[in-house]
Amino acid sequence: MRQILDRIADKWSLLTIALLAGRTLRFTELRREIDGISQRMLARTLRHLERDGLVRRTVYPVVPPRVDYALTPLGGSLHETIQALVTWTETHQNEIAAARNDYDTRVEIA
Fold it and tell me: What is the pTM assigned to this prediction?
């Protein structure tokens, strides 16, 4: 169980799953939308999510090669759970930022 949680709870997996919710994207589109992710890390993340049955990779036999990524039904059900976390984060982000500021100010003084 911990292995699965470690995999799906990392920031790149969460962002990838959130971006694929309800749509199909190409690798370059995902990379463009996920700020700060390297090509290598995105490829690794997608491979892991595909292996876990959360993402479907579709390769089209065209030149140049075209590869699309989409959530599987299992990935879609995980997204519903993640969405609650995203909503909570959006609702409380200002409070968290204020708490961090307060903490940083106290630590600097001490």
Answer: 0.80
